[in-house]
Amino acid sequence: MKKFINDPKAFVPEMLKGLALANPDTLTYDPKYNLIVRADAPNNDKVSIIQGSGSGHEPAHVMIVGKGMLDAACPGDVFAAPPTDFVVEAARRVKSDKGVLLLVNNYTGDKMAFEMAEELAAAEGIKVRTLFIDDDVAVKDSLYTIGRRGVAGNFFVIKAVGAAAEAGKDLDEIVRIGEKVNAVTRTMGVALTACTPPAKGEPLFEIGDDEIEVGIGIHGEPGRARQKWVPANEIVDLLLEPIVSDIPYSSGDDVALMVNGLGGTPISELYLLYGIAHEKLAAQGITPTRSYVGEYCTSLDMAGASITLVKLDDEIRELLEAPAEIPIRTF
Amino acid sequence: MKKFINDPKAFVPEMLKGLALANPDTLTYDPKYNLIVRADAPNNDKVSIIQGSGSGHEPAHVMIVGKGMLDAACPGDVFAAPPTDFVVEAARRVKSDKGVLLLVNNYTGDKMAFEMAEELAAAEGIKVRTLFIDDDVAVKDSLYTIGRRGVAGNFFVIKAVGAAAEAGKDLDEIVRIGEKVNAVTRTMGVALTACTPPAKGEPLFEIGDDEIEVGIGIHGEPGRARQKWVPANEIVDLLLEPIVSDIPYSSGDDVALMVNGLGGTPISELYLLYGIAHEKLAAQGITPTRSYVGEYCTSLDMAGASITLVKLDDEIRELLEAPAEIPIRTF
């Protein structure tokens, strides 16, 4: 294993420390609970949004804490749910008169930690709700999940509820918005290589030099099928068909189209996939009117990509277009 | 080779097509000359900025065309200089009464193409200057270079001259600013793996499972030394020492600190490196007051990173802080 690490056990804390050092005016880092919190939180005039999940999916979620997005991120170790008491502590740090929303990708471990944390926080008098995200069409149940998995589509739920919270909407309304966005968002991914968790020190699974895993999970969980590599045009078909037919998306729809890199794939290849997907959708009368190309929810150093569609209406579009401020500086 | 590609020969055009489809309001793509141009160019009230280089370094430079950055990018094929007539055509497309600045990383092939293009454009009556960027401290001369190479530090030159152009500065003043930023910017990189150019279909060089290449070039050119992998703390020393001692940067300096991924390294590891570099600089009295962590200038799918320092003064800081608009959407 060749990575930029020191002690594998310190991987997540060292990353979070770097993140805080790079953003001293906007973020605080609490090493005791592994929390990244907005420096200006809590704000009693808005609902606070917390996302928790295992680490290894960066920039999700620690690097999207900021105005109009998350108030706090509560990461676990790599691919592991955060401890329940860390989630409760996160809720304490950002508790607000308007309430706290916990966003959780639908994995059994995360679900247990966050449901328990919601109960404990509520018992302390914190007004709190939880919303589960399950946008992955690849598999019905999986290695770590009952029901669908939550993957890169969580980005759109976060953006929408973050914007709604910033606009002062109340907790019930924000839950409605989050559920609405989740209901029109679908994702499927493909892996070209396995990822290597620092503590494991070797690839999480075997995959041949000429093979791809279609429907891969963001923790390296198996997808729908292992098959031979095919050109990008065919890979886009393998991802788009199950997505489009799922809701379904249909002619006349306006969509946001995301091509998300899984950590080891260069942005050049992601734009190549974007162009193919855009044209294939347009040919079906489905119009991508908002584009997202880059890394949003990764799987460590895995070479691979996922495609996400979001069916847009005026309400969702306005929330996605709202201003936000996150640590990642592109210019 | 497993990549998201169709025909390797079509890799660059398909990427550019995807980029244009994702940004229909702000960018235009000319497949004949491989140009990406701002949709609102030319603007006779500002100097136009063009960067050319080989492809394979994305987001540099085709994905940083936009207000306050580049007016046009003129990419060659992967790791190859663009043809001279493509550069001349780029100058024609964005020619302005205030002039055109060609930005070029210092590689022999690019230098020849752009110097010839400058002559030809000038002969057509286009007011044009060329500025070479050479921020890489790793090697004095290299496989493709007489003198130092231009690498990720070009980002800061582009940002500064882009902001100055947007503010209406004249061509001489913009050249002065570009030269000033280049003179206070230094970079060094390290590779953990080789990159695989699509047309070659296999890694560009051999590197052992336990080896790193210190001082790597962005086209896979050899650096200063091949050595055994060492932990991140030591890797940061290997990169920072030659950078800091070069200008030198010294106690009391405020700097911008960039940790740039080379394409295959996840942002988690880049933030880990950032934290280490930030603290090591601070211990020497050199204060990083502006942070850049992510992918700015890559080498296809290479796992690796570079560190860049920019010595800041009020003029440079103001130019780096100026607003800009580029295709990459992070929220």
From TrEMBL, chains A, B:
Q: What InterPro entries does the entry give?
A: DhaK_1, DhaK_dom, Dihydroxyacetone_Kinase
- Entry keywords, A to Z: ATP-binding, Kinase, Nucleotide-binding, Transferase
Quote one Gene Ontology molecular function term. Answer: ATP binding
Its BP terms in the Gene Ontology are: glycerol catabolic process
Q: Can you name a GO cellular component term?
A: cytosol
* Entry keyword annotation includes Secreted: no
Ranges in coiled-coil conformation: none
Record SUPFAM superfamilies: DAK1/DegV-like
In terms of PROSITE patterns, this protein maps to: DHAK (PS51481)
Q: Which domain of life is it from?
A: Bacteria
NCBIfam families with a match to the protein in the record: dhaK1
Q: What is this protein called?
A: Dihydroxyacetone kinase subunit DhaK
Species the sequence originates in: Tessaracoccus lapidicaptus
